[in-house]
Design a protein that fits this description.
The complex is a heterodimer of chains A (507) and B (504). Chain A has 15 helices and 17 strands. Chain A has 507 residues and is of the alpha/beta class. Chain A folds into 2 domains: 315 residues, Type I PLP-dependent aspartate aminotransferase-like (Major domain) (Aspartate Aminotransferase, domain 2, 3-Layer(aba) Sandwich); 143 residues, Aspartate Aminotransferase, domain 1 (Alpha-Beta Complex). A 7-stranded mixed β-sheet of chain A has the order 4-12-11-10-9-5-6, sandwiched between helices. Chain A has a 4-stranded antiparallel β-sheet with strand order 13-14-17-16, covered by helices on one side. Chain B folds into 2 domains: 267 residues, Type I PLP-dependent aspartate aminotransferase-like (Major domain) (Aspartate Aminotransferase, domain 2, 3-Layer(aba) Sandwich); 135 residues, Aspartate Aminotransferase, domain 1 (Alpha-Beta Complex). Chain B has 17 helices and 17 strands. Chain B has a 7-stranded mixed β-sheet, with helices on both faces. A 4-stranded antiparallel β-sheet of chain B has the order 13-14-17-16, covered by helices on one side. In chain B, strands 2-3 form a two-stranded antiparallel ribbon. In chain B, strand 7 and strand 8 form a beta hairpin. In chain B, helix 15 packs parallel to helix 17. Chain B is globular, with a radius of gyration of 25 Å. The chains are: A alpha/beta (507), B alpha/beta (504). At the A-B interface, helix 1, helix 2, strand 1, strand 2 and helix 3 of A face helix 1, helix 2, strand 1, strand 2 and helix 3 of B. Strand 1 of chain A pairs parallel with strand 15 of chain B. Chain B: This is PLP-dependent transferase. Chain B: Keywords: Transferase. Chain A: Keywords: Transferase. Chain A: It comes from Leucogyrophana mollusca.
């Protein structure tokens, strides 16, 4: 960070500030600064590598060099394959002698370097460091603890992923939802919350958590303009931005990057250019903590990802990791390091896999939309968005067309956030109908961030979120058969629900 | 957050007729407040009917995992002493494989998917089976962890509130006790002797505790019963029984941190038992009895790890505890690091499966590992006696397990050893300064061992009758995990240097 970058250490929680490094590290620092090179080490309790029962790891993967569009071939079992190897006693990108040791909290040096290069390549952050994680959940929840005090309020999308937003509730962090539209979070709405914040509710929010590509659950992607606006607001109000981006490489409707046969090393550059700039790439202040993961682009069981942040946060994360789950496992670090190495896929090959993957998801998105238009839209009771990335569609249901839909004008003196319609009730009833007809999609009520009257500045015009939970999240990550059956059953369920005999409300 | 309560009935844990104490008071405020994942509740409802189309979860399909096969080249355990054969390169090797689209113990289709916090059932079952054969735990659950540091720090969050006091050994693995400090947990050290923590001192602390002035009485004990880190001691069966009794009396949860359990020396492994019943049984007969094995109350949380018996980079272990704590622990895992990596779980499933080493083969590897570490321990102690102990300035007990030797420096013989005036409860000797001097001198001469001060936990209750711990830090923790050459060179340096330091 340049000397003009702001000092952001006041964002750290008390817990993060009080955390002490491993006392044995103090000893190691003394050893290293003593200048003695050939020290007999009888201080470590680390098993010697000659006792690791691993001589070699081999991973069979698609051969992307031989197959330019590997995913469809791979899915049908028709793809040529290659192996990534890691050895204990022979040269490779990450020797098993190192891979299986206890290592630095940020990860093995070879893997750190590989991911630093990857980060530099795709995002070109101004001046940041990377810390390996065990996936996005791990990374994000660490940041909650790093930044949040009991009583804090954090900002996020008004419909957000409860797997993450539930996590800090038990340690006293609350959420304020920012209104969204078809383009995702509305920057002006975020600014309003900050401007009108009443300190009686507690400290003004100082952390923003967003999923900028293929937002979970709404499927929206923030435009470049919105990203810039959000960053400007963050600078003005001194916010930390947690950029949670697991679907970044699954962006749609870009012209596919061509692959001329003599194109060495340029394919990946052109692929990188086709992706929308990240908020990290504009982070001159060092206030962005970006979370990347291999879960959606390799597999969830990898449990491997990384956080890109300024060096101050990086150091704190390393101490935190050392005080808890420790660095990630050898297997995953070896895999990733070999994958991006000369004998692996290299950056070009990795980009080929990514492009092929995103085209595959795009085909599935388009298939879902096609079946939806055929089976659901004609009912007149629902519509769907066209996501620009990710794995989800956000289906809107027109509950006001239901015979039992009720809406009352707000009673004078009633809470600005209390529901005035029975949308929520109907939403859950319809969910039961879906389940009855053997299809499951997620009701928006699960994702809705609870509102508080204190944050509502325009009570007369405000529509409570509980009246706007008229959506379901559906995924196109399954097979075509799943999508076909699912959407067909959805259409049927809607007809039965809206046109069928009135149900007795069981809720 | 609009919360949908789970349509499934609250899980009732039936305890099969055993009358067990209610341990829910031990949970931290945070653990009590933690909600389960609402998305999982919906999915559970849907899973009741086969044929349900699930479009609710955003899980990548297994056809998109770009790994169809993983091979691990490991030692063959056909050799009588597989660890020696492996080290010297004279032994055979075996290839263990996991597949996505072909049969194997744990398909990569499962291993690479998202899963529950506790880990994959197959692996939990395999480890529960190992537990049963070694500890016969009365009624417990197994949850996978990312190793003992991960498990232990999660237990701190599960059980500790700001202002809590936890009990620990007065010399302990301070990286872990430090981890609890930012959570507002204070440590109360228990005195130790060559046999480990002294039950009488634990009883003294608890019975003389005054909640009015000291806050809530300690309700958690953190102990490393085998190859205690750093003192290398192993608790005897008698002491374990006494400690468990005290825990019962005062309602203490015991965190049994046991990464060195499988590295035991001078064991009586009966070859007839090996021949008739296999290595697991023979080792189970010889290994010390764990706290888990006597845990009829369900107050023990036992932490096992693959770090020292396979490799640290495994980042895999398992926690054994009562069902109630296990469920709460799994919820914490679901809210943080998530279940362990599929690659390691797949490996363990194959290793312990019929195409791998199996449980008996694994225990054969463990037994062979014990022999190797025992060899090193013996080498260390022989050279130590010859080069260091004979000077009369240092001594050490022979460790019965693990990797550590706790070397005592007889500082009272040093010319500059002094008593100092101290009325404020601080140290009354210059032990700490002299040890620091000796550490620097050893470093200058090319040897590093961990000074005791790194691991010392000072008593802050003001009630200890035994003086300040800084008067007792006249020890180094040495390890014998390095090469034979390192051990011999290191101890030579030690002998020469310490003689020099005393005499000149």
């Amino acid at each position: 960070m340049t000397s003009s970058s702001p000092d952001l250490s006041h964002h750290l929680s008390g817990e993060a500030r009080e955390r002490l490094p491993n006392p044995m590290k103090v000893i190691w620092r003394r050893v290293n600064s003593s200048g003695r090179i050939d020290v007999a080490n009888m201080a470590n309790g680390d098993p010697h590598h000659s006792l690791y029962p691993f001589k070699q790891l081999m991973f069979e993967v698609p051969s992307v060099a031989e197959e330019p569009d590997p995913v469809p071939a791979w899915r049908t079992g028709n793809c040529p394959t290659q192996f990534f190897h890691s050895y204990k006693d022979e040269p490779c990108a990450l020797s098993l002698r190192n891979a299986f040791q206890y290592t630095h909290g940020a990860g093995l040096p070879e893997c750190q370097k590989t991911l630093t290069d990857l980060t530099q390549f795709f995002y070109a952050p101004p001046d940041h460091a990377i810390t390996l994680t065990l996936g996005n959940s791990d990374g994000i929840t660490k940041l909650f603890r790093l930044l949040g005090e009991r009583g804090d309020h954090f900002l996020t999308d008004e419909f957000s992923f409860p797997g993450m937003t539930n996590a800090p509730l038990s340690y006293g962090i609350k959420w304020v939802g920012v209104k969204m539209d078809a383009g995702g979070m509305i920057p002006e709405e975020m600014e309003k919350i900050l401007q009108n914040w009443n300190e009686a509710s507690g400290r003004r929010p100082h952390v923003l958590y967003i999923i900028p590509v293929g937002q979970n659950p709404t499927g929206t992607t923030l435009s470049l303009e919105r990203r810039q606006k959000i960053y400007a607001i963050a600078q003005k109000w001194d916010l930390i931005i947690i950029e949670d981006d697991p679907y970044y490489f699954i962006q749609f409707d870009q012209p596919p990057v061509e692959t001329p046969s003599d194109d060495q090393g340029n394919y990946s550059k052109r692929f990188a250019k086709s992706l929308i700039p990240t908020i990290l790439s504009m982070d001159t202040d060092g206030r962005v903590l970006r979370i990347d993961s291999f879960s959606k682009i390799i597999a969830p069981g990898m449990r491997l990802g990384w956080i890109t942040s300024n060096r101050m946060f990086h150091d704190k994360l390393v101490t935190y990791t050392d005080s808890g789950p420790q660095h990630p496992h050898a297997f995953g670090q070896a895999f990733v390091t070999e994958m991006l190495s000369e004998k692996g896929w290299q950056m070009d090959g990795f980009c080929r896999w990514l492009q092929s993957l995103r085209l595959d998801y795009q085909r599935r998105r388009d298939f879902l939309l096609e079946v939806f238009r055929r089976e659901v839209e004609p009912t007149g009771y629902a519509s769907v968005n066209v996501p620009e990335g990710g794995m989800f569609v956000w289906i809107e249901v027109y509950f006001e067309r239901h015979p039992r839909y009720r809406s009352e004008p707000p009673v004078a003196g009633s809470s600005t956030v209390a529901p005035r319609t029975n949308v929520e009730v109907l939403l859950l009833e319809l969910l039961e109908k879906f389940i009855e007809l053997d299809v499951v999609i997620m009701p928006s009520v699960l994702f809705a961030i609870e509102e508080h009257p204190r944050w509502i500045d325009d009570g007369a015009r405000h529509v409570p979120i509980r009246d706007r939970t008229r959506f379901y999240r559906a995924t196109f990550a399954g097979t075509e058969e799943t999508i076909e059956k699912g959407m067909t059953r959805l259409g049927r369920a809607l007809r039965e629900f809206f046109d069928g005999p009135p149900l007795t409300s069981r809720l | 957050m609009v919360f949908i309560p789970s349509p499934t009935v609250e899980r009732h844990v039936t305890e099969a007729g055993l009358k067990r104490p209610d341990l829910s008071r031990h949970l931290s405020r945070e653990a009590r407040a933690r909600l389960p994942n609402p998305i999982k509740s919906i999915w559970k409802v849907a899973q009741v009917k086969p044929g349900t189309i699930n479009m609710g979860n955003g899980d990548p399909h297994h056809t998109l995992y770009p790994i169809s096969e993983m091979n691990f080249v490991v030692p063959s355990i056909d050799d009588a002493d597989p660890v020696q054969a492996w080290r010297t390169g004279t032994g055979g090797q075996q290839v263990i494989s996991s597949f996505k689209d072909e049969p194997c113990a744990l398909s990569l289709r499962t291993a690479f998917a998202y899963g529950a916090g506790a880990g994959l059932q197959h692996v939990r079952d395999a480890l529960a089976d190992l537990n049963n054969r070694i500890h016969s735990p009365p009624n417990h659950s197994v949850s996978l962890s990312l190793g003992n540091a991960d498990a232990l720090t999660k237990c701190f969050r599960l059980l500790g509130d700001p202002g809590d006091s936890f009990l620990c050994e007065e010399f302990t693995f301070s990286a872990m006790t430090n981890a609890a400090l930012p959570l507002g947990i204070d440590w109360v050290p228990i005195r130790m002797d060559e046999g480990g923590l002294m039950p009488a001192d634990m009883e003294r602390i608890l019975s003389s505790w005054d909640e009015a002035t000291q806050g809530k009485r300690p309700h958690v004990l953190y102990t490393i019963p085998c190859s205690q880190n750093p003192t290398g001691s192993t608790l005897s069966l008698e002491r374990r029984e006494q400690i468990y009794q005290i825990a019962r009396e005062w309602d203490i949860v015991i965190l049994e941190d046991d990464p060195y359990f499988f590295l035991q020396y001078d064991l009586d492994v009966n070859s007839a038992t090996v021949a008739q019943h296999g290595f697991t049984r023979a080792m189970a007969d010889a290994l010390p009895r764990s706290f888990l094995s006597m845990d009829y109350d369900g107050r023990v949380m036992r932490l096992d790890s693959f770090s020292k018996i396979l490799a640290p980079g495994m980042r895999l272990g398992w926690v054994t505890s009562n069902h109630f704590f296990a469920e709460k622990l799994d919820m914490l895992t679901d809210s943080s690091s998530q279940h362990p990596h599929g690659l390691g779980q797949a490996f363990v499933a194959e290793l312990l499966g019929k195409d791998g080493w199996g449980a008996d083969g694994f225990m054969k590897w463990v037994s062979s590992l014990c022999s190797e570490y025992e060899r090193r321990r013996n080498l260390f102690m022989d050279v130590f006696r010859r080069e260091v102990a004979k000077t009369g300035f240092a001594s050490a007990e022979v460790p019965q397990s693990g990797m550590f030797v706790w070397i005592k420096i007889n500082l009272e013989h040093h010319v500059r050893y002094r008593r100092i005036e101290n009325s404020s409860g601080g140290p009354c000797t210059n032990t700490a300064e002299l040890m620091d001097e000796l550490f620097r001198k050893l470093l200058d001469c090319g040897l590093v061992m961990m000074p005791a001060s790194t691991f010392a936990i000072a008593d802050r209750t003001g009630r200890s009758t035994e003086g300040h711990i800084a008067d007792r830090v006249n020890y180094f923790r040495a390890t014998f995990v390095g090469t034979d050459e390192t051990i011999c060179n290191g101890l030579s340096i030690f002998g020469r240097t310490i003689e020099d330091w005393y005499c000149f």
